[in-house]
Design a protein that fits this description.
The protein has about 270 residues and is mostly beta strands. The chain has a single domain (about 5-110, about 140-260), classed as Porin, CATH 2.40.160. The protein contains 4 helices and 13 strands. The chain has helices at about 35-50, 145-150, 180-190, 195, and strands at about 10-15, 15-20, 55-65, 70-80, 85-95, 100-110, 150-155, 165-170, 205-210, 210-215, 225-235, 240-245, 250-260. Strands 1, 2, 3, 4, 5, 6, 7, 8, 9, 10, 11, 12 and 13 form a 13-stranded antiparallel sheet that branches. Helix 1 packs antiparallel against helix 3. It is globular, with a radius of gyration of 18 Å. InterPro entries: ACOT8-like_C, Acyl-CoA_hotdog, HotDog_dom_sf, TesB_ACOT8-like_N. This is Thioesterase family protein. It comes from Actinomadura darangshiensis. Pfam families: 4HBT_3, 4HBT_3C.
Length: about 270
């Protein structure tokens, strides 16, 4: 893919419909999307739906119902629980009338400006001057989402056992003709936690995340975001990936994914 020819992850078609560009394609197939752009697309809809001054989207949970094709998508959101200080939003992404993603978000009133910050996370590592190698990841589709993001690896590498730490930013906007919001930048990256932090050999195990939850105690500042991720798995159970999100000023939120672990098909 030539990035200069990819204006964005999505092109707006009007009426809540979007055309997915090849930049949305995930690492496993050029025909199916990575969860990052999809999560950001519905997060964008949450932010724009009946906005209330002085509130912010503090938590988004995205349920991935099936592989999302690189195709036209319809995005619809609604208010599930209205309120001036706390509101629950619900949303759905469909392809040709079939739901492929469902999501919820809590929109809450911003805390008073004089609140004394309480942050327990350690300072993020410095942003590397140059990108690191992807590592040996045979059979992976690189010419979609992975190329549409700029990566600066700090610890670990894609396709290698984690935990891992990476700085990243999108090379292109989420929607053509728009500047990304802090929430959109965060959601575009957050679903990469299991790829960055996986401690299972991806050549021996099939790992599929069913969801991603992103909770933010403040909005990030700047284009570059840091994601530190690790994965836990148990026999007879499943896997759980958790990530810490930070910008140059420090930690601002967390990401959590539930994952299926199985032997790959023959």
């Amino acid at each position: 893919m030539v990035l200069d020819m990819m204006e964005a992850f999505y092109r707006p078609l009007g009426g809540g419909r979007f055309a997915s560009t090849p930049a949305t394609a995930g690492p496993w197939s050029p025909g199916f999307q990575h969860g990052g752009p999809v999560s950001a697309l519905i997060g964008r809809a949450f932010e724009r739906h009946d906005p209330v001054p002085g509130t912010r989207v503090a938590r988004v949970t995205v349920e991935i119902l099936s592989p999302v094709p690189v195709a036209e998508l319809d995005v619809n959101v609604r208010v599930v629980r209205p309120g001036k200080r706390i509101a629950l939003l619900g949303g759905e992404i469909t392809h040709e009338g079939r739901p492929v993603v469902r999501a919820t978000a809590w929109r809450i009133m911003a805390a008073p400006a004089h609140l004394v910050p309480v942050v327990h996370g350690s300072a993020p590592p410095p942003l590397p001057d140059s990108p690191g190698p992807f590592g040996d990841w045979p059979g992976v589709h690189l010419d979609g989402y992975l190329s549409a993001m700029e990566w600066r690896l700090v610890r670990g590498a894609f396709g290698e056992p984690g935990p891992g730490t990476v700085w990243a930013r999108p090379r292109i906007p989420l929607v053509a003709g728009e500047a990304d919001t802090p929430l959109a930048r965060t959601l575009t990256l957050a679903d990469s936690a299991s790829g960055i932090g996986s401690q299972l050999d991806l050549s021996k195990w099939m790992i599929i995340n069913t969801d991603v939850t992103v909770a933010l105690h403040r909005d990030p500042v700047g284009d570059w975001l840091c994601l530190d991720a690790s994965l836990d798995a148990s026999p007879g159970g499943s896997a759980l990936c958790q990530g810490t999100l930070a910008d140059r000023s420090g930690e601002f939120g967390r990401a959590l994914q539930t994952l299926l672990v199985d032997e790959p098909p023959a």
